């Protein structure tokens, strides 16, 4: 039987999981693939470190370069994290014509274009199933399962930390800071937590999915990113009363010229973006959104992830599972190892397209021109005439209010008011809210959260 020797760079949470999973299921995989996978060497930072998974000392080294260059190593598995040394590791392996498996979304987000080009140039493949949504095989779904579809909508709950925090805030009526501290204590959130709670990790993953689905590299700088730091217990409660659950969503939506319009069919006022004839535009963004409770994504709780994909042939599909953790992530790495092993066995070079090539050029729609619905919470003086002033500003901006709710039980000089706003471009909404914030009757900064209708 053909043997493939793995050189693993990183023997931590994921590396340990991969080592253990191959120990447990390596023979099963060999019987399925006709290729035997052997972990030949593992590079780590500290040889003396106590490890939860016992990797034999004879396999360990601190010299990643010797692992990558080892002529016995046919396949390099980058599980070290970070973007500087990891980039060098991946480039060094690809330049030697060795296929690489990585779980590193930050690396792909920062250097994906360069790394995929290097794989292409050196006649090999770069595999990255574990980089998005842990154990959910969403990369394979987009690359292979839905290859015959144009992906018109993709919504992902792809950050388990944020989903855990938002779920507990809703279930327990708890404050953000208290739940975050608990999540850090339990190991669900890093210290500092910024990469997760400010939406950057979700943006890395959403960008990878958008690039894969639409056939062009989405520059991370073009991804509008808003985290969950400003979501309050009060907004979660009001959203619940209105029939919604707040979730951090990665959104990838295809827009045609016709779709750059408001719900009433009129072109969105004040939008600047124009789609050229041969072009299509996609919205790629990450933000907390009100999700109707009847939608399946509202019921994805705790650290779980889910990705909802609409294809023009298949219709709506849903993928759900553990988005991180040792075993779930190892499962995704094993799937890439199997693909890489088969490609080595069959001598197929450049089989894995970095993205699914599209027949037209794509562009990322500026967030200012994206049309959304909104939940707005204002804190206003409790006296007559307040609504009229707010409604006047919105009317002048041609922004329609679908409902105004003044929650009961708030006595005092100021009261909360919730506005549910019809489709409006983000730029117009921002301008209107800044004018509303300046009204003397408005007593604190307006809170705006987008409402996702999944149309
Ligand atoms: N953890 C998850 O649930 C998860 C899920 C999906 C994707 N990922 C991705 O998987 C990757 C690994 O994450 P992880 O959680 O396994 O990280 P981790 O537990 O911190 O492990 C990192 C490993 O890399 C080794 N390492 C770091 N710098 C090195 C260097 N210069 N030379 C050699 N070895 C070096 C470390 O060595 P020592 O052990 O000696 O410190 C450690 O074994 C990251 O890209 C992460 O984003 C993780």
What is the structure about, briefly put?
The protein has 455 residues and is an alpha/beta fold. The protein has 13 helices and 17 strands.
Can you give a write-up of this model?
This protein has 455 residues and is of the alpha/beta class. The chain has three domains: 2-127, Rossmann fold (3-Layer(aba) Sandwich), CATH 3.40.50.720; 140-323 and 360-367, Dihydrodipicolinate Reductase, domain 2, CATH 3.30.360; 370-451, ACT domain (Alpha-Beta Plaits, 2-Layer Sandwich), CATH 3.30.70. Helices cover 35% and strands 25% of the residues. The chain is built from 13 helices and 17 strands. The strands form two sheets. Strands 7, 8, 9, 10, 11, 12, 13, 14, 15, 16 and 17 form an eleven-stranded mixed sheet that branches. The protein has a six-stranded parallel sheet with strand order 3-2-1-4-5-6, sandwiched between helices. A hairpin with a 3-residue loop joins strand 11 and strand 12 (315-322). The longest helix has 21 residues, at 13-33. The chain is elongated. The protein binds NADP nicotinamide-adenine-dinucleotide phosphate (NAP). NADP nicotinamide-adenine-dinucleotide phosphate (NAP) is lined by residues 9-15, 43-46, 49, 64, 79-81, 85, 103-105, 130, 134, 324-325, 329. NADP nicotinamide-adenine-dinucleotide phosphate binds at residues 9-15, 43-46, 49, 64, 79-81, 85, 103-105, 130, 134, 324-325, 329.
Query: Into how many domains do the coordinates divide?
Result: 3
Broad shape: elongated
Tell me the total number of β-strands.
Answer: 17
Largest sheet: 11 strands, mixed
CATH topology of the largest domain: Dihydrodipicolinate Reductase, domain 2
CATH superfamily of the largest domain: Dihydrodipicolinate Reductase, domain 2
Percent range for β-strand residues: 25-35%
Bound molecules: NADP nicotinamide-adenine-dinucleotide phosphate
* CATH class call of the largest domain: Alpha Beta
Kindly report the average pLDDT value. Answer: 92
The arrangement of helices and strands along the chain is: EHEEHEHEHEHEHHHHEHEEEEHEEHEEHE
- Cα end-to-end separation: 51 Å
| Weakly predicted, low-confidence segments | 261-267
Return the structural class.
Answer: alpha/beta
Task: Give the radius of gyration.
Answer: 24 Å
State the helical fraction. 25-40%
């Amino acid at each position: 039987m053909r043997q493939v020797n793995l050189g693993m760079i990183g023997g931590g949470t994921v590396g340990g999981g991969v080592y253990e999973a191959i120990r447990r299921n390596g023979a099963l995989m060999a019987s399925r693939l006709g290729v035997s996978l052997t972990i030949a060497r593992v590079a780590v930072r500290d040889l003396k470190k106590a490890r939860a998974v016992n990797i034999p000392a004879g396999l360990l080294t601190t010299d990643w370069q010797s692992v990558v260059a080892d002529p016995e190593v046919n396949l390099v598995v980058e599980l070290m994290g970070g973007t500087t040394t990891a980039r060098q590791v991946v480039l060094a392996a690809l330049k030697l014509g060795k296929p690489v498996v990585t779980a590193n979304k930050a690396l792909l987000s920062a250097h994906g274009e360069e790394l995929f080009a290097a794989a292409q140039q050196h006649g090999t493949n770069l595999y990255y199933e574990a980089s998005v949504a842990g154990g959910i095989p969403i990369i394979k779904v987009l690359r292979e399962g839905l290859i015959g579809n144009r992906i018109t909508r993709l919504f992902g709950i792809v950050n388990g930390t944020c989903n855990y925090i938002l779920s507990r805030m809703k279930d327990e009526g708890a404050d953000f800071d208290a739940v975050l501290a608990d999540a850090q204590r339990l190991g669900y959130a890093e210290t500092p937590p910024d990469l997760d709670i400010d939406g950057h990790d979700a943006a890395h993953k959403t960008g990878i999915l958008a690039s894969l689905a639409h056939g062009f590299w989405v520059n991370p700088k073009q991804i509008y990113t808003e985290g969950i730091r400003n979501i309050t217990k009060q907004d979660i409660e009001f959203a619940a009363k209105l029939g919604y659950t707040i979730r951090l969503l990665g959104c990838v939506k295809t827009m045609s010229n016709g779709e750059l319009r408001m719900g009433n069919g009129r072109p969105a006022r004040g939008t600047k973006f124009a789609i050229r004839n041969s072009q299509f535009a996609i919205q790629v963004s990450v933000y907390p959104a009100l999700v109707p409770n009847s939608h399946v994504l509202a019921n994805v709780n705790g650290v779980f992830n889910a990705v909802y994909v609409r294809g023009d042939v298949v219709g709506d599909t849903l993928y759900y599972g553990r988005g991180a953790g040792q075993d779930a992530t190892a499962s995704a790495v094993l799937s890439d190892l199997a693909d890489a092993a088969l490609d080595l066995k069959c001598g197929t070079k450049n089989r894995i397209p970095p993205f699914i090539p599209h027949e037209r050029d794509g562009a990322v729609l500026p967030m200012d021109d994206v049309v959304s619905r909104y939940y707005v919470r204002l804190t206003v003086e409790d006296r007559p005439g307040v609504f009229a002033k707010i409604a006047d500003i919105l009317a002048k901006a041609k922004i329609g209010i679908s409902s105004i709710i003044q929650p009961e039980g708030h006595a005092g000089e100021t009261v909360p008011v919730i506005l549910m706003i019809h489709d409006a471009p983000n730029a117009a909404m921002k301008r209107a809210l800044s004018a509303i914030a300046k009204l003397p009757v408005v007593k604190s900064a307006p809170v705006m959260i987008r409402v996702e209708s999944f149309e």
